[in-house]
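Exercise 3.2. Students should predict the tertiary structure of the chain below and write it as structure tokens, then compare their answer with the key that follows.

Predict this chain's 3D structure.
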Amino acid sequence: PNSGDMAASDCSSAIPMAANLGDEFDDYEAFVEQDLMVTDAMSSSTQQTVDRLGSQMINGNKEDEDRELQTMKFHIKTYGCQMNVNDTDIVRSILLNHNQATGVNVDATDSGESSLQFIETTDEIQADILLTNTCAIRENAESKVWHRLRELRSHDRNYPLSSVGDEVGRLQKQRNVQCSKEDKKKRIIGVLGCMAERLKEDMFQDGTADLVVGPDSYRDLPRLISVLNAPATGTLPTERAVNVQLSLDETYASIKPIRSNPNDVSAFVSIMRGCNNMCSYCVVPFTRGRERS
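Answer key:
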């Protein structure tokens, strides 16, 4: 009997213990459920934050791409011989194909410089870059170039490109209204070819030219234009750029010329550049360098 009483006593004491465990289990479930709700709320908030940051990064990247990639319009006029016509087709190819494959110049992006892409325009008013491929075989040929350069500079001073777009510049010209000093944007006036090679830095006299490039340095045109177009990092912006280095091996063999009219039934093909004859009356060896083909 005593052992039975003890067993009954043990059982009676075990029942409230089980009840207490159940209460604790219920409390634990409520705690877990509350914790899951908090976790879900935190996850939702975190996901919203991640989405917002991702959207900001995407928009920022798009703005960076728009800021890094700038389109400039160029116009080119050719004086002189058939060789100059062929060189103009080479210059056109170099500019039009610049950044065409990737759209962004990696080197320029890494260095913090804006990357440029070029399109050609037949309207000088809309052009950001005015190039003249020159001839130096006679004095009369150079006189024509000087006259054109002075006209271009005068035109640029009277009707500068507006910083808000080319169309504004066109409307201002039609209304005979000049831009304010704050809106003025200077065109880049470039001299290419034999006259550039013969006179070199003298082409900068009277402020008629900003860019001087010889016949063997056309591959450097995009970089030189980028330097002139870059915003001023110091006290003064870069206003002049020149490369008149002659080459012993440059033939532009890897460049496919682009003609102004693709439907033309004829085209010039370069079979030789430069000359070694050194005739007393001829300037070619001094403006186009040594013979190579």
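Discussion points: Residues 6-19, 101-113, 175-183 have pLDDT under 50 and may be disordered. The helical segments are 2-68, 82-96, 106-111, 139-158, 166-174, 194-199, 221-229, 284-288.
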